Amino acid sequence: MEEYERGGAARSKEDGSPVTLADHRAEAIICQHLARVAPFTPVIAEESTADGKPISVVERFLLVDPLDGTREFIARNGEFTINVALVEGGAPIAGAVYAPAIDRLWMGGDRAFVCETRLGTESPDEGMWRRIMTRRAPSSLIALASRSHRDPETESFLNRLPIGEARSAGSSLKFCVVAEGQGDVYPRFGPTMEWDTAAADAVLRAAGGVVLDTAGSPLLYGKFDRGLRNGSFVAWGDATAARRFGYC
């Protein structure tokens, strides 16, 4: 938030995506704490990977995106998040998504919760959490789409569904809106990395939703042979909706 308020400049990485000093500062802080609380769990973080740190092939690991939605951060619209996920056996079994500009923290594991308060140095106590769940898909759906990555394939997909309302949002917030039962479907056909999606995927799954690939299977993690790149996917709040609406 210091960098956000300062409005520092961004530069482009080799893949053309933007990066700021906030990305690197946040990643250093997060990885330092993860090394303390989970010293035997490998950490794969976006910026250190982009800087050339090799990725270890393991079954259980932590994924860190220190600033998801860098374009939204630069635009200063508040729609950026910090994502930390625990992946085991190809699935995100726990995740935390924090949106510091709007003071909301989502957590997913066995169940999903949201905390709506400014965080200090201490973790929120039990009374600050509210359990969240997805909703059964109605006949008229609310769709979420990327604010910065809208494409013709997304438009074509949404045109095949009974969409009553379409909302745009940045970063992992789209998953979280669906997880809270305030939206129904979020398609993404453009490129993403596993650290972009794993934490929010864990929240959505814990809330009752599902994220499916183009074959209709749950999105897998630990795709080391692909450099941890995701393929196309669709996130659904209602796990039965994909079949009902002809996605798979």
Number of helices: 8
What form results from the Cα inertia axes?
A: globular
Instruction: Look at the structure and name the CATH superfamily of the largest domain.
Output: Fructose-1,6-Bisphosphatase, subunit A, domain 1
Top CATH class of the largest domain: Alpha Beta
Overall pLDDT confidence: 92
In the CATH hierarchy, the third-tier topology of the largest domain is known as Fructose-1,6-Bisphosphatase, Chain A, domain 1
Instruction: Specify the biggest β-sheet.
Output: 7 strands, mixed
Bin the strand percentage: 25-35%
Which secondary-structure class do the elements indicate?
alpha+beta
| Spatial ordering of strands, largest sheet | 3-4-5-6-7-8-9
**Radius of gyration based on Cα positions:** 17 Å
**CATH architecture descriptor text of the largest domain:** 2-Layer Sandwich
Which ranges are low-confidence, i.e. pLDDT below 50, for 5 or more consecutive residues? none
Q: What's the short version?
A:
This protein has 248 residues and is of the alpha+beta class.
Key phrases:
alpha+beta, D-Maltodextrin-Binding Protein, domain 2, 248 residues, seven-stranded mixed beta sheet, globular
Structural summary, described in words:
This protein has 248 residues and is an alpha+beta fold. It has 2 domains: 2-131, Fructose-1,6-Bisphosphatase, Chain A, domain 1 (2-Layer Sandwich), CATH 3.30.540; 141-244, D-Maltodextrin-Binding Protein, domain 2, CATH 3.40.190. The chain is built from 8 helices and 16 strands. It has helices at residues 2-6, 21-37, 46-50, 70-75, 152-159, 173-179, 194-207, 241-244, and strands at residues 10-12, 18-20, 43-45, 60-68, 81-88, 91-99, 104-108, 112-115, 129-131, 141-146, 163-169, 185-188, 192-193, 210-213, 229-230, 233-236. A 7-stranded mixed β-sheet has the order 3-4-5-6-7-8-9. The chain has a 3-stranded antiparallel β-sheet with strand order 12-16-14, with helices on both faces. Helix 6 packs parallel to helix 7.
